[in-house]
Specification:
79 residues, alpha+beta, 5 strands
Length: 79
């Protein structure tokens, strides 16, 4: 998951107790949380309301990272 406004990535999302969510962010794409499928990531991103957050595809291209979006996903989520 990517926060386009700050160019950060979600590292972890946890709910230590009901109604309390903790999110960790990093500027390095290599630390981004990996989800098994698009739907799993979308469920988490829908809960992030404080920041504009989108589900992104992240590809390791050796010396650089490539970030991609599906269709209009980059504009879909707004705070």
């Amino acid at each position: 998951m990517h926060l386009p406004d700050s160019d950060e990535f979600v590292v972890s999302a946890s709910e230590p107790q009901p109604g309390v969510m903790f999110y960790e962010y990093a500027v390095t794409p290599g630390l981004a949380k990996v989800y098994p499928n698009f739907r799993s990531a979308l469920k988490v991103v829908d809960g992030i309301q404080k920041h504009r957050t989108v589900v992104a595809y992240l590809f390791d291209h050796g010396t650089q990272w490539l970030v991609g979006f599906q269709g209009g996903e980059a504009e879909r989520q707004t705070a």
